[in-house]
Amino acid sequence: MEITQNIKIAVDAIVFGYSKNELNVLLIKQKFGALKNKWALVGGFVKDDEKLQDAVHRELLEETGIKVNYLEQLFTFGDDLHRDPRFRVISVAYFALVNSTKLEAKPDTDAEEAQWFPIHKLPELAFDHDTILKTAYTRLQNKLSYQPIGFDLLNNEFLFSDLENLYSTILEKNIDRRNFRKKLLSFDILEETEKFSDKKNGRPAKLFKFNKQKYNKLLKEGFYFEIKFA
Amino acid sequence: MEITQNIKIAVDAIVFGYSKNELNVLLIKQKFGALKNKWALVGGFVKDDEKLQDAVHRELLEETGIKVNYLEQLFTFGDDLHRDPRFRVISVAYFALVNSTKLEAKPDTDAEEAQWFPIHKLPELAFDHDTILKTAYTRLQNKLSYQPIGFDLLNNEFLFSDLENLYSTILEKNIDRRNFRKKLLSFDILEETEKFSDKKNGRPAKLFKFNKQKYNKLLKEGFYFEIKFA
DNA sequence: TGCTTTATGCGTAAGTTTTACACAAATATA
DNA sequence: TATATTTGTGTAAAACTTACGCATAAAGCA
């Protein structure tokens, strides 16, 4: 049986970063083709002997110099039959989170055209990337409530108020500060450090750490992370 | 920029059916190639102008004559670089549920080699299909608790005991019959019919229906389906 | 120094949901 | 008519969630 198929496989990464109470998305400006100067997700074609995740890491490194904290497959988009005039492209989209400190860092490659955009102030996007992004944002919102991935968007050590703001920003909901803290502490996956915030105003706050090892251990014992809001 | 890529795109379907308190998976016997006579998931290569879901429906119809009740994209498997000796294959796996009545029906095409296997009595599988299947089973288990997809595995009208058995079989857990019924009824997405079971033993049981319209309406109002067990 | 402002840290009562458990009702069959 | 079998319903205790209020620790300023 002969197989003639003229489809190319690409990967795209939706990279989220969180900084100053805003959720941001990493985009790059297209340098070639009909869509020159439009913004797009980081991505590119997969090499014949390259695993899908490796392709994502490579593209991220090549185009933006960024190393992500968390990466998972999101969805495969393949129904836009004319995304590229040369051939059909099927794109395996990945969902990534980076630590907020990396937000400030300039990309270290030739891509000074990589830029962070607040999720609610996006430019017009190339291809079907707005659809992909919407899917990714929904996934982030859902995942936040049953997996402790918020920590991958924060510094290693963070304030409770940071975490709380992250949740209320991304979920677009108000949260009761006291119940939120109580709930998270009850999971017993956070660790107090000896350090304090150095903000000007108010009572200094303790810095906390996420204990991933402990979380993984608890998972095996049937523990179930879940945060819901009214 | 020239793109040379020698990868083919396939779709695979993991079709689940439920009958007589057993969860079954639909497999077909390979007729050609090195893996002749091994069992595999239903699937095949995507046509250049064919949407991914359409490819799945086509393959299912061609190879088994089955029309599914529920279909969703599961995951894209692309890291087995040598699944096919001719070229690399990336497979977009879909997750499907069929109504139990269809379990008895013979495939109406040339594929008398399609067969249902109980999930816990699977034959050796071709390619990486055992990995795919495991992923699918986990997805089914998870999804059962936050989306009312169990109904897609049952007849249009079903007994509460059927539903309860389905949950306890698939989740491999014991369920308190009374609390289960109470919980499900509290959602107000089931409808009593006037009909009763025709079993020989015991008190006749009412047949129920899932009211999908009502469920969809409730969803829009912020309703959240969830069934958990101790 | 002490008053005000700001944000953190903790406690508790009321409301809601989950869990555990037992008995009556409806049928078939001996 | 008694027995076996499965369905249908109720209720109290426990666990969890929600909605709040107040004391504490710093900084700024009069």
List keywords for this structure.
Arc Repressor Mutant, subunit A, elongated, homodimer, 5 helices, 230 residues, alpha+beta, DNA-binding, seven-stranded mixed sheet, Nucleoside Triphosphate Pyrophosphohydrolase, three-stranded antiparallel sheet, 27% helix, 2 domains, 10 strands
Structure explained in plain terms:
The structure is a homodimer of 230-residue chains. By secondary structure, chain A is an alpha+beta fold. The first copy, chain A, has two domains: 8-143, Nucleoside Triphosphate Pyrophosphohydrolase (Alpha-Beta Complex), CATH 3.90.79; 149-220, Orthogonal Bundle (Arc Repressor Mutant, subunit A). Helices cover 27% and strands 29% of the residues of chain A. In chain A, strands 1, 2, 3, 4, 5, 6 and 7 form a seven-stranded mixed β-sheet that branches. In chain A, strand 1 (7-19) and strand 2 (22-29) form a beta hairpin. Chain A starts with 6 loop residues before the first strand and ends in a 10-residue tail after the last helix. The mean pLDDT of chain A is 92. Chain A binds a DNA duplex (30 and 30 nucleotides) through helix 4.
Secondary structure blueprint with pairings:
2 copies of one chain form a homodimer.
Chain A: E1 7-19, E2 22-29, E3 39-40, E4 42-45, H1 52-64, E5 70-77, E6 88-98, E7 114-118, H2 129-144, E8 157-159, H3 160-171, H4 177-187, E9 190-196, E10 206-210, H5 212-220
The structure holds a DNA duplex (30 and 30 nucleotides).
